[in-house]
Amino acid sequence: MGHRKVLVDTSIIIEHLRKQQKSQSLLFRLENRQILYTSTVVAFELWAGATPFSKQQEVQELLKLFTILPFHLEIAKQAANIYRDLKGKNQVIEIRDVFIAATAMVYELPLATLNVKHFNRVTGLTLFQLDELT
Q1: Does residue 134 lie in a domain region?
Q2: Which pLDDT tens digit goes with each residue over 85-102?
Q3: Rounded distance, CA 1 to CA 57, Å?
Q4: What is the domain-level CATH number for residue 52?
Q5: Predicted TM-score (pTM) of this structure
Q6: Is residue 55 part of a domain?
Q7: Mapping DSSP to helix (H, G, I), strand (E, B) and coil, where does residue 55 land?
Q8: What is the pLDDT of residues 9-60, one digit of tens each?
Q9: How many domains does the chain have?
Q10: Containing domain of residue 76, as a range?
């Protein structure tokens, strides 16, 4: 079986950062089986949360595992569509999550996330089945 592509959400990376045994993290298992992508929004979230210098260094090293996809006009349009749809259903999620979902949709990548409850609200978004990693 060849490697498949997946967009990784912040929650997966944070789970990795918090694990004492990194080899037990979902990111570790994804890295060995998938081609990893993430978005500039995820990079922002990681940098914003990395207050001690040591955490900034760890984030810098982890981001080397990914192809980082930029936020651009097509993603902005997709994000606006997602936002309007969610607002119309009174199911709005955090705007950064809207941007991450839009990135996955524009690049036609499944999204690996631990935040399934929120991302499941986005019509047309494919979520990566984390149980495939066990």
Answers
A1: no
A2: 999 999 999 999 999 999
A3: 34
A4: 3.40.50.1010
A5: 0.93
A6: yes
A7: helix
A8: 999 999 999 999 998 999 999 998 899 999 999 999 999 998 877 788 989 9
A9: 1
A10: 4-129
